[in-house]
Amino acid sequence: MTSDDQFFFDFLASIPHDVKRYSADVADAIDRHVDYAATAVKDTLTVYLPSIIKPGTRDVSLLHPPKPLSVPERVYNWVLRNRAWTAALIAFFGTGSVLLLGSRVFDQRKRRARRAGNGARKEIVVIAGSPHEPMTRAIAEDLERRGFIVYVVVQSAEEEHIIQTQNRSDIRALHLDITTTPSTPSEIHPALHGIFSLISHAQSPAPGIQPHTCQLSGLIILPSLNYPTGPLPTIPASSWADTVNTRLLSPILITQMFMPLLTHRNHSSSILFLYPSISSSLSAPYAGPEVAITRALSGFATSLRQELRLLQFANGASCNIDVVEMRLGNLDLGSQYRVSQVTGTEILAWSPQQRALYGQSYMSSIEQRPMAAHGPGAIRGSSARVLYNAVFDSLAPPQKSLFGNKKRRKPVVFVGRGSRSYGIIGQWVPSGIIGFMLGYGNSPSTVSSGASSETGWERV
Predict the structure, then answer these.
(1) Which superkingdom (predicted)?
(2) What's the DSSP call for residue 245?
(3) Which residues contact 316 (CB under 8 A, 6 or more apart)?
(4) What's the maximum distance between 2 C-alpha atoms anywhere in the chain?
(5) 40: left (phi > 0), else alpha (psi -120 to 50), else beta?
(6) What is the rounded CA–CA span in Å between residue 384 and residue 315?
């Protein structure tokens, strides 16, 4: 057998081994592809049919990623990683919360006047208002209960008798004749020497007790809240003169007389101007005297406030006198202070021509007032406590801020239902809408004979 035959037989002998190796490789490749296809089909069915096909334990981490952490868990992990920042934030917000809660608790404190070291009363408040006015008596009694020495300005023996009937030892009458003035405004008025002695010389309540010096804490200007109403031609000149003298000129002169006492010692004190604000905010018709006087008082208070802020004492200290405007709304001082009012009957004093010209529109305007239609009890006023707390807060020394700075008293304080809302309405709402609110255009025609109008108004 030749060498070629031997090579041929060797080649035939190696063919089965090669076929076996190639077939094994092909089988392995097919198995891998089949396994990959089965895995892909299984994963797809697991996603769409999770209740039927359950994933294997080997693919759970791939099919179900880890559940996201909740907010508390993430905060907890952040706290563990940043302990220094956590301690600083807790200290900052904890201190702020304690200060805030402490200020709220302090704001709800019992409002009481400060006492002297020996326990006697030392804070003096003067009320420049008629004792005939219910609000004057109510404020005087409340301030006396809180520990103030209250002086009420009186002009006659009758008014002094009203103060005496209150049976309060620390509510005293102060006779102040504004027609007699000192030669120079800087001098002390003769009627004020008693108060000047209390705030300039030490006083001893009884022998053996440590003396103390009183302090003039405030002056409350409270003109009468009742103003003449009606069309301008129906208000006589004498009524205008009385209104201006008693509600504008008198408060200005009284303030001038008390300035030497208020500036004698640079203590914290206040000058309060109390006046109604609803009619003046709306510029209500037929309320010319009230609108004119209240706006004049507001202008005077604003000018005086700016003047006192520029005042400098000899030692370089700034003035501690604050001027506060207290704009009053509807207040309910209680049944004992409620006074019934009759509106509309003043038409009977008008001339026939004035009744024919202004009668219908005037009656239409006063019909918009609940007091005119249903009496004083129809008005839901704020509680008297709101007024008392506002007066005390305006008299008390101003509180300090969180940073230790001294706060100034609010220059304008709204007291009573409707005072703030009507102020906003009068400032921002167009006059046409305000006129609709006040009933403009709702009155019937006024074109009628004077005789028929006179006959109609005689029935009122």
Answers:
(1) Eukaryota
(2) I
(3) none
(4) 166
(5) alpha
(6) 42
Residue 226: helix, strand or coil by DSSP?
coil
pLDDT along the chain (460 residues), means of 10: 55 57 67 71 64 51 64 81 82 74 60 86 93 92 94 92 89 89 78 91 80 92 91 92 94 93 88 93 89 95 93 80 93 66 72 88 71 49 89 86 72 92 86 70 43 34
DSSP assignment string, 398-428: PPB-TTSPBPPPPSEEEESBTHHHHHHHHHH
CB 425 within 8 A of CB 281: yes
CA 10 to CA 24: how far, in whole Å?
22
Element (H, E) at 154: strand 149-154
| Close Cβ partners of 49 (under 8 Å, ≥ 6 residues apart) | none
The contacts of residue 82 (CB under 8 Å, 6+ apart) are none
Q: Are strands 171-175 and 215-221 parallel, antiparallel or unpaired?
A: unpaired
User: Which residue stretches of 49-82 are H helix?
Assistant: 60-63, 71-81
Residue pair 131/159 in contact (Cβ under 8 Å)? The answer is yes
CA distance 290 to 50: 83
Instruction: Tally Cβ neighbours within 10 Å of residue 122.
Output: 22
60: its two tokens? 């759970």
User: What count of other Cβ atoms lies within 10 Å of the Cβ of residue 46?
Assistant: 17
